[in-house]
# Entry
Amino acid sequence: MAAVTSQPSSETQETHMLREAGHEPAPAGAAPATGATTAFARNVGSLVEGAFSGGARREGPDADVFDAANFKQVQNSWWLDRALPGSVGKYFLAAYVICTLVWLAGMAGRILELGVSSAGNAAWQFIWERQWQITPLLLFLHFLSLRLFKGIYSRNFDKAFAHLDVTKEELVGYKRWFLGTRVNFFAIAIAAPFVVYEWLFLFHDPDFFRLVYGEASPYAQAAAPGARGFEAWWLLSIWTFEWWMYGYYCYLMVAGSIVVRRILKKHDFVDSVDLVLTERQYRPLFNVTAQAGSVVFVYGLIYAGYVFYTKGSASDIAGLIVLVVLLGASFAVTWSGVRAELRGNVHTAVTALECSYREARTKLGTMKDVPGIEDDLQRIQVQLKMALALQQMDYLQNKYESLGRKEFLGLVFKMLAPVGTVLARVIRWGSLIAALGLGSAALLGGGDKPAEQPPATNSPANAPR
# Structure
C-alpha cells in the first residue's frame, strides 16, 4: 500500500521541480526526449529570440538614430529629395536600383569600349576594379545619409525649443527658412570646391586611370596617357552627384546651429535658471547634433574604408575632415549659445544670493547674545539662511560651468552607439551559429541514445525496478 501511494507523491514533486525550472513535464505515454535534443532546442530557441530582439530595448521613440521614421520624406524644398519616393520601402528600393544601374552602366561602357567580342574578359576586369567594387556602396551610403540628416533635423526641430518661449508660428517660419529652396544653392556652393578639384584632376592629370584604379589594373595599364573615355566621364558624374549630396549634410549642420543661436538670442527659457540647470532643459538643443554625430561616425567609418581600399584622393580625405570639423563647430556654436543665454540669468541669481548672504551675515553680527530659546532659534535660522545661500551659489556656478560636458560625452557615446549595436548583433548571431554547430555535433554523436531518467527523490535507492 505504501508503494502505491508513494508514486503519485513522487510524480507531484518531480512535476513541481520541472515547473520551477521553467519546463513542463512530458505527457503520460509520450516517448522520453533525449537530453541532447532538449538542451539543443532550448538553447537555440533562446539564442534566436535574443538575436531578433536586439533592438527591443529603447529609451524612447527617438533613441534609435536609424529608426524608419527618419527615412520618411517630410515637406521640404530639396530638389534631390523631392525627386525620390516618400515612403521608406520605396526609397530604399529606388536607391538600390539607382546604384545598381550606375554600376551596370559603367560595366556596359567598359564592354563597349573594349569590344563586344571580349565582353567576358572586360566584365571580369571591371568586377575586380576596386573603385567599382565600392562605388555602388558609397553611392548608396550617400542616399541613406541624405534622408537621415534631413529626418533627424526636421523631426527634432520643434522638440529642441520646447522649453523656450517661442511660438509655434515662429518655429514654422524658422523651419521653412531652414528647409527652404536656399538649401539647394548652398549645397551646390559647398560642393563646388570639391567638384572643381575633381574636374581639374580629370583634365590635367595624365595618369588619371592609374591613380584611380591602381598600377595593377589591366585597364589602367592599357589606357593611353591622357585618354578620357566614357568611363572617366561617368566616374566624374558620380563624384559630382555625391559631392552635391555632401553639400546638403554640411549645410544642415551649419544652418541648424545658426538657427539655434538666433532663437536663443531672441527668446528665453520659460522656467527659472535653477530649474533649467537642474533638469537640463537645454539638452534637446544638443540632441540633434548628437544624433547627427552618429550618422557622421558611421559615414566616416565607411568612407575611411573606401579611401583605404581604393587609395582615395586628397579631396576624399579633405571632405571627411571638413565634415567632422563642421560637426564639432555646430556643437560648439550651440554650446556657446546656451551659455550666453543662461549667463545673465545665472549672474542675476548669484548676485541675489550674495545680497541675501550679506544681509543675513550683517543681521547675525548685530544680534546680541541674550539667553533664551527664542534668541537661539533666531540665530540658527539666520545661520541656516547663510549656509543655504552659499550652497545655492556654489550649485548654480558648478552647474553652469559644467554645462555641455555631459552633452559632449553623449555626442561621443551616440557616435559609438551604432558600432556597438552592430558588434552586439554579430556576437548574437555568432553565438547562434556556434550553438547550431555544436548542437548538430551533439545530435550526430549521442543523440540516438536516450537519456537515463534519474530516480525519484523520495524513493529508495535500491528499490526494485
